Amino acid sequence: MRAELLKIRSTTSGRCLVAVLALGGAVVLAVAAAAPALIQALVDLQRRYPDLRLTDAGDGRFDDVLALLSVADPEYQRSMVDLVNPGPFAGFGSLGLSTTCALLTGVLVATGDFRHGGIVLAALATPDRSAVIARKACAVVTLLGGVGLLLVLASGGSLAVAIALTPDATLELSPAVVAAVWSRSVLVLILLGLVGLGLGLLIRHQTPSVAAVLVASIVEPTIVLVATLVAGSTPWFAAFLPLSASQLSPRGSTLASSTELGATAHPLVALAALSLWAALHMAAGLWRTSRTDLV
């Protein structure tokens, strides 16, 4: 496992992916924390000085937006501790930064050895190919679990800042709820990494594997979005699709519950579906690695 982690640290793409996942996730959380106070300040300034024409603050639409972005709302606070889809609007119609980076991390771990020929040396040193894959899986779990813990700290700090910036706002969530959302979020990142690992082992080539992730990240959310717009509610199958399940697993929703298009599902159902997809991808990758030639 140390060798697998060293491979990630020693490549530019690996370092960049981990940095984007950690720093990018922290930036998104910071923006979600500061956005309500900034929007409220802008609207108050416009209403106090109408001649500034900064916004159309006289329109009642802004009251609905401010209500949706109320830090005092428990639903908004739950979105702040969601590491996969931070903020009330994240994760609807597109994939988040954390989701994409976690998938690509797994792909990179799987395809790096095939690209540079290291998989042959690893198989010679360890004839049991399942053990080689197990070490790669442990490296993905360790890496994404560590990044997830860093995002937990960023999430807690962002929520504290958001509450401090909002008058009369207090923490409305119990420690058990916060811990549950954090735990499911970290587990989602790990499972997405395993999905990417299995996909990379199945395809073996880095460019097609990355292309498959990018295509899936566009096609699946688009299908769910169109079905939602046509039916007026989230389709029942959304919780069983891999990427949609990853969005629904942390808190069971992607949009604030006050919106008509709010996607909701039981988080444990979505998490179970994502776990099944991870198992299927890993099984497919193990089958090809064990049953076919490595070159």
Q: What is the domain tally?
A: 1
- The structure class reads mainly alpha
Q: How confident overall, as mean pLDDT?
A: 79
Query: Into which percent range does the helicity of residues fall?
Result: over 70%
The major β-sheet equals: none
The tally of beta strands, per DSSP, is: 0
Tell me about this structure.
The chain has helices spanning 2-10, 12-48, 61-68, 74-80, 97-116, 118-125, 129-165, 175-203, 206-231, 242-248, 267-291. With 295 residues, the chain is mostly helical. It has one domain (2-291). The longest helix has 37 residues, at 12-48. It is elongated. It starts with a helix and ends with a helix. The model is unreliable at 256-261 (pLDDT under 50).
Task: Produce the secondary structure layout.
Elements: H1 2-10, H2 12-48, H3 61-68, H4 74-80, H5 97-116, H6 118-125, H7 129-165, H8 175-203, H9 206-231, H10 242-248, H11 267-291
Label this structure with key terms:
single chain, 295 residues, mainly alpha, 11 helices, 72% helix
Brief summary of the model shown:
The protein is an all-alpha fold and about 300 residues long.
